[in-house]
Amino acid sequence: MQLEIFLDYGTNVGEYPKWQTLFREHQPTALIVWGKNDHIFPAEGAHPYKDDLKDVEFHLLDTGHFALEEYGDLIAAEMKDFLKRITD
Question: How far apart are CA 61 and CA 14, in angstroms?
Answer without folding.
Answer: 27
